[in-house]
């Protein structure tokens, strides 16, 4: 589902779950929080899965694949409710993206010298 107000793409799919408009809107609304922290996000794919063979507290699984400049982020959480899984997923993604941003900021603000063990050949 692509939001008209945001140029970023959010794709929501369901596995053994009928996705209602309310559930899709809930996912899109919650995922908007991630774009405020990281503008480099290209696309977020969210899968909501229901498995009635699992224990009651682990029946709903929410998975996210965040395509971002650099290594992509893959997160998965399980709970007993689809909306609860989405909330847990967004919280976990938020922590991961903030952690990633702070690591990149630390590297950018504190560069270190690299020493080469070999001598470079002279050109000329």
Can you give a write-up of this model?
- With 124 residues, the chain is of the alpha+beta class.
- The protein has a single domain, classed as Ribosome hibernation promotion factor-like (Double Stranded RNA Binding Domain), CATH 3.30.160.
- Helices cover 36% and strands 27% of the residues.
- It contains 2 helices and 4 strands, in the order E-H-E-E-E-H.
- A 4-stranded mixed sheet has the order 1-2-3-4, covered by helices on one side.
- Strand 3 and strand 4 form a beta hairpin.
- The longest helix has 28 residues.
- The radius of gyration is 20 Å and the shape is elongated.
- It starts with 8 loop residues before the first strand and ends in a 15-residue tail after the last helix.
- The relative contact order is 0.15.
- The N terminus is likely disordered.
């Amino acid at each position: 589902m692509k939001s008209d107000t945001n140029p970023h793409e959010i794709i929501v799919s369901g596995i053994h779950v009928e996705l209602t408009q309310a559930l899709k809107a809930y996912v899109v609304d919650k995922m908007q929080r991630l774009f405020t922290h990281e503008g480099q996000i290209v696309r977020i794919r969210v899968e909501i899965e229901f498995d009635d063979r699992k224990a009651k507290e682990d029946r709903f699984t929410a998975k996210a694949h965040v395509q971002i400049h650099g290594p992509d982020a893959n997160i998965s959480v399980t709970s007993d409710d689809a909306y609860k899984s989405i909330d847990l997923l967004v919280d976990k993604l938020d922590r991961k993206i903030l952690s990633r941003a702070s690591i990149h900021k630390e590297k950018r603000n504190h560069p270190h010298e690299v020493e080469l063990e070999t001598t470079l050949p002279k050109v000329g």
